[in-house]
Structure formats: structure tokens, C-alpha cells
Amino acid sequence: MSYPHLLQPLDLGFTTLKNRVLMGSMHIGLEEQKNGFERLAAFYKERAEGGVGLIVTGGIAPNFAGRVEPRGAQLSHFWHVGKHKKITKAVHEADGKICLQILHTGRYAYHPFSVSASAIKAPISPFKPRALSARGIRKTIKDFANCAKLAKKAGYDGVEVMGSEGYLINQFIAPKTNKRTDEYGGSFENRTRIALEIVRAIRETVGEDFIIIFRLSMLDLVDNGSTFDEVIALAKLLEEAGVTLLNTGIGWHEARIPTIVTSVPRKAFTWISERVRKEVNIPVITTNRINTPEIAEQILADQQADMVSMARPLLADEKFVEKAAKGEADKINTCIACNQACLDHVFKQQQASCLVNPRAGYETELVFKTVVNKKKLAVVGAGPAGMAFSCYAAERGHEVHLFDQSNEIGGQFNIAKTIPGKEEFHETIRYFNNRVKDAGVHLHLGQKQTADSLIEQGFDQVIVATGINPRELNLPGFDHPNVMSYLDVLRDRKEVGKRVAVIGAGGIGFDVSAFLTQPKSHTLDLDAWLDYWGVDKEYQERGAIKEMHDEPVEREVYLMQRKSSKVGGGLGKTSGWVHRTELKRAGVKMLNSVEYKSYSEKGLLIAVNGEEQLLEVDNVVVCAGQLSNNSLADELKAKGQSVEIIGGAYVAAELDAKRAIRQGAELAARI
């Protein structure tokens, strides 16, 4: 067996999990949509069929106040049960097990009816919560128990009680948000009372043969959070109260320390799960940035945990466990932790999916049927759009020829993988290299195609996925060798001086600035990363935070944009703050409302809000957007060839792999 620890069953006494993989909770956005539960059933069923040992749903509120937002999903009444049965039936038919996560958001609720331990507003919500009365607390405890009762009635195998990430229960536990003076505030015993009373009430309601997972905040990563001794004491009390499994919770949503983005090293927090595991007698689940079976196996082999939770990796590949069991780990579509189609969507009240797997969440809509009329197709450009289309189309039965003038596939991903913190893009290129072979795509690298050469080969249709060209700025002095494009820096590795002006503060401008200033140790060395972000591995202070450690930076960088808006304001909702923080700590000077005048050997002349100034820089790097590279499509159309355009060649606005891969998949499904 390739992964003996990962694939080993876990005996819980009254039931056995077939392996040590837990699909962690993730809100998909289907919970609130019309016919969303039918689609959720298909989503979870595919993960169960793929072999995952236990699934946990996205968070479901036990009452109205606990909803994420006014329309948020809730399980409180008997008429809610029927739609949940669709999910449990589908999972059980696929020989899977599934738990419902009970999530009360507390002060994180995005509505005016929010409640908390104390009336302290969260920095991530515009609404100040009302402090729960003692009567309100008792009612909330009953609501949790009722939710669990209904979950059992709906056919769930258990529930997960969300006690971490800064949600309601965590708000009671931490002194930061609990300023009460009654029996639910003050001492550790009082602050943890609600957590224990909820678990006892659930256990009494559902009986012994029902899984109760408690997601315990092992690292709050905020000031005035829990101490290590308090975490251990609560873990033991939860075990006594009837918890079946302890899941690891890392950080609050308002924490200044990233916990799941790409730049977080793999298995960055398993060390705390290991410490807690040594103190309890029930299985402990670890989580966060675990995205390959090799890493998961090592965690279990090293006895850092009894189970491994992965949420986004099972969005990226529903057959993760099945492929690992077959010894085909190199064929897993690895999660790159970009957050672009999953968490960024969820936090904007949009449906979640996956950048590298556009079928995630769209299992009933994005369907790839075997073709009746096989076509001979040419795909020009082996970037994200071209790769995705080629594989899906070939898997449907078309004869697909994929051309690229480069000697490797990947397109812009080959640039992205060079950025500190984005090394995971190597995995996507590895995955597509294997998938192209398995799908039977005819790959032609190092070949530049023309309209005539393509027409001569007799293709039924040509799919143009030729990407983009960097936009050049026609300004005085910008033909100087010291003025470069981002491709000169990231792809061609041209030498760059110590003082640099970066024109354009979109995603590429941030990437170039990171490339010029960020040491790779931040992402490839765990201890260096923890030190950089101020995570106290020794757990000497509440919340396990300490002063962040900045490293000397060799370059002085200016990052500029024409727009008057906040620099970096258009970056991803859940990751943009990390990129802005990293560059600020590296001393990057961010300027908005900039007009670019000219370049000379003295430097770059700009005007900020009408006032001219000379930046005495060695180099200028232009990241001022892109233009679609679609001239080939125009030539083909002029010659009467049937053509489709996808990816950057279709729309060049910022490099958008999420859109490119989805567009390629959607075209392949209908062609």
C-alpha cells in the first residue's frame, strides 16, 4: 500500500471510518440557492465516490442570529430536514459518511441581529453585536442541540461544532471578546462553560452512536486569545463531555497572520495538533495547507495527528483519495491555495468553485459527454485555457492537437511559479503534463503555427489560446534598455538594479515587486516563516503571537498606479491583504494617482496629484496591463477557417487563469 497510514481505517467504537482523510468544512454558496441542495448532493457524492473517509458540510446555523448573512443556511425546524436528506442519501449511496457543521457566527455575522459574548464589534463586520443574556445563552445551547437532533433525523452521521476561527463559541472562550462578569465570563471555567454545555446538550440529545467533532481553536493568533494550558485543559474537558474527534482550528478571520494562502508553507501548523494529541485520548484531526498524500502520510506516520483534514484539495480533485490508493498521486489535480474561485467567491456571496477544477460545485451543469461526431481540433497555445480545453475535449473523444512555440506547456503559469509564495504552480503544470498524455492529446511543442500551416493540416476547427502581449507605454525615453517589461524580469531574468520603479499595481505589479524584494525562505522554510509573521511556536503569550521579524531588503522599490484608489485594492479578497502587508514590510513605496512623464538616465519623471518628482531609479518595470494576442484568429477567419478564441486571447484584462480554465472547459463541453 502506497500510503498505509493515510488509508488505514479509524475505529471510533460505534462506527469505523474507512481511512484517515476528512473533507474539511467549506461553504459552497449552493446552500442558499434554489435547487442548491440537489447540486450539493451531487458535489458531495462525487467526493464520497472518490474515497474520502468522512465529509463535513459547510457551516449551517442553529438559529437566525447565527447565520452568516440574512439569507444564510439554517437547520432549526422539521421542514428543513427534507432537503438535507438529499445530501445524506447521495453520500451514503456512495459508501461515504458525512457530518453537518453547526456554525454560529456570533459577531462575525453580516447582519444587524448578530450576538456575541460581549457587545464588541468585529473589524470584519459593520454590525456591532448584542451581548447575549443568560437566558439567550441557554436558548442558544438548546438551538445547538436541536440542530444536532435534526441533523441526525436528516441522516447525518454526526455533527461538527464550530468552536474556532473567532466564531461565537470562540468569542466566549477568549478574553479578547469576553468581558462578561456573570457565570459565562471572567475565569477560564466560566469562559469555556458554553462550549461544554453545548457538547453535553448535543450528546444527551443524539445518544452515543453519533459522531461529535469539536473544532477547537488551538492557535487563536490574536492578542488576548487562549493560552496553551487553556487549550489543553479545554481539550480534556471536551473529551469528558463526549466529543468523538477533536479538529484543529487555526487563527481568527481578523488575525494579522495568514493561515491558508499559497505563501503559507505546507503543513505549517501540524506541530500544535501534535502537542494537543499527546494530552488527550480521542483522535485529533490536523489541518491547513495539506495538499498532497505524501504530506498527509508523513503527518500521520510522525504521529502528529490521527486524521488529516483537507477542504480545498478535495475541491481541486474529487478523486484525491482514489488516486492515492491506486498509486497515482502524480495525477492528482493539486490545490494551489490561490483562493481565487473558492474563498474569494464565498466572501463575496458568490458560488464557490476551483481555479484548477471548474467542475467543482458545477457537477450537474458542466458535464462532459462522449462525442457522437468526432472532430479534428487544433489548439494553439498551451497556457491555462489551451491546456484545459485540450484535455477535456480529448477526454470526450475528439482528436486534439495542441501547439505551442515554447518548449514546455504552462504559459503564464511558468511565470507565476517563479514568484516567492507561488511555488505551488509547479504542481498544476505537473498535473497537466500527465493529463495531456493520459487524454491522448497530440502535443507539438517548439512549433510556431501560421494560419496557412494550420489550414493545410485540415482541422475542423481551430481554438486560438495564444494568450496576451504585455502593453507597452509610448512615453519619452521608454525605449531605453533600463525600461523593461515584466516578462524581461520574470521570464528572461534580466538583471535589475537596486532602485526600481514598477509601473502598474495590479496582480502582476505585485508579483514583480514580491519577486524583487521577498526572500524565498518565507515560504520554503517553516521556522523562518513563523518567525517572519510572529507566530510564537513556544506559546509563551496568549494567542501564540509575538513581534514579527522583518528581514533586510536589498532593493528600494516604488509600486505605482494611475488610479486614485487604494494600491492593491483589486487583489483577491482573502489574499490581497497578505500581499500588501508583505510589500509594506519590505519597504515598497506604494503610490496612486501617478502620471508617468518620461525616463532618462537620471531616473523616472512622474507627477503625483499634479506635482512632479524625479525617482532616481536604475530600472523601470512596466506592468501596465496586456493586449489580447489574437491576430492569428483574425487571419484564420479571413481565410474561412472555423475558429474559437479562449483565455487571454479572448479577454486580456489582468491575467485571469480562473476565467481561462473555465472558458476552456465550457467550450470543450459543447464543441
Automatic annotation (TrEMBL):
GO BP terms: fatty acid beta-oxidation, unsaturated, even number, reductase/isomerase pathway
Keyword Secreted in record: no
Domain NADH:flavin oxidoreductase/NADH oxidase N-terminal intervals: 6-330
Family matches, as SUPFAM superfamilies: FAD/NAD(P)-binding domain, FMN-linked oxidoreductases, Nucleotide-binding domain
FAD/NAD(P)-binding domain sequence ranges: 376-638
Cofactor requirements of the protein: [4Fe-4S] cluster; FMN
Pfam families: Oxidored_FMN, Pyr_redox_2
Keywords linked to the UniProt accession: Flavoprotein, FMN, Iron, Iron-sulfur, Metal-binding, Oxidoreductase
Cytoplasm recorded as keyword: no
Molecular functions per Gene Ontology: 2,4-dienoyl-CoA reductase (NADPH) activity; FMN binding; iron-sulfur cluster binding; metal ion binding
Family: In the N-terminal section; belongs to the NADH:flavin oxidoreductase/NADH oxidase family.
Xref: PANTHER family: 2,4-DIENOYL-COA REDUCTASE, 2,4-DIENOYL-COA REDUCTASE [(2E)-ENOYL-COA-PRODUCING]
Protein name, as recorded: NADPH-dependent 2,4-dienoyl-CoA reductase
